[in-house]
Design brief:
Sufe protein. Chain: A, Arc Repressor Mutant, subunit A, 42% helix, alpha+beta, disordered N terminus, 3-stranded antiparallel β-sheet, 212 residues
Length: 212
């Protein structure tokens, strides 16, 4: 494993040899401009303005709906590069995953394949997961099969603080695993304590979903 210290020298991040391999030698990276109709689907998540953006392109067998090619480009950290690189291998190896199999791919599956990521970098595997699902939706959108599109909508949990379930999800991914820690990040429930039981349920759900 590789030991990389944080700027304040108060902690060290550990990267496995697999992470280093996919960072230094990324697989299926898109190193050129892509024509609009060159691929069967495209997906995007994030924005360069906030530091991370990921785009993916898929070629899909129309009969079996197996992913034949997964190319990607990201503006992000080493963990984002490694996560997307290994995911591109996972969905195309052994004949390729079907779109439904790829949609079921979880961030924890990506992280396990990498041999682990630092806790504060776990959100990078989520970034890849979301871009892949966006591309799958795009494939069905282009095919006019709107019944196969899965919309991931946010719902407001706290009307007073204007906090959504997505805000709580992001807080958990950033390391807030207790109600108090989530409140520090989002202010959820501080002026509206009646929502706290629902917030605690969401925290448990996201902890189990992403961290087991």
């Amino acid at each position: 494993m590789s030991d990389v210290s944080s700027r304040d020298r108060k902690q060290s991040w550990f990267y496995t040899d697999i992470v280093k391999e996919h960072f230094f030698h990324p697989k299926n990276f898109m190193d050129r401009d892509v024509a609009t109709d060159e691929y069967d689907a495209t997906g995007k998540v994030g924005s360069p303005a906030c530091g991370d953006e990921l785009r993916v392109w898929l070629k899909v067998d129309p009969g079996s709906e197996r992913i034949r090619e997964f190319r990607w480009k990201t503006f992000g950290c080493g963990s984002a590069i490694a996560s997307t690189s290994v995911a591109s291998v996972m969905v195309t190896e052994n004949g390729g995953m079907t779109l439904e199999e790829a949609r079921a791919l979880k961030p924890m599956d990506i992280m396990n394949r990498l041999g682990g990521l630092p806790a504060r970098k776990f959100h990078c595997s989520v970034l890849c997961d979301k871009a892949l699902r966006d591309a799958i939706n795009d494939f069905y959108r282009r095919a006019g099969r709107f019944d196969r599109i899965v919309v991931e909508a946010s719902r407001v949990v706290d009307l007073v603080a204007k906090v959504t379930d997505h805000d709580i999800e992001e807080a958990v991914l950033e390391g807030a695993h207790t109600l108090e820690a989530v409140q520090q990040k989002t202010k959820v429930g501080i002026g509206n304590p009646g929502v706290l039981p629902a917030v605690e349920d969401l925290i448990r759900f996201y902890r189990e979903k992403y961290f087991g």
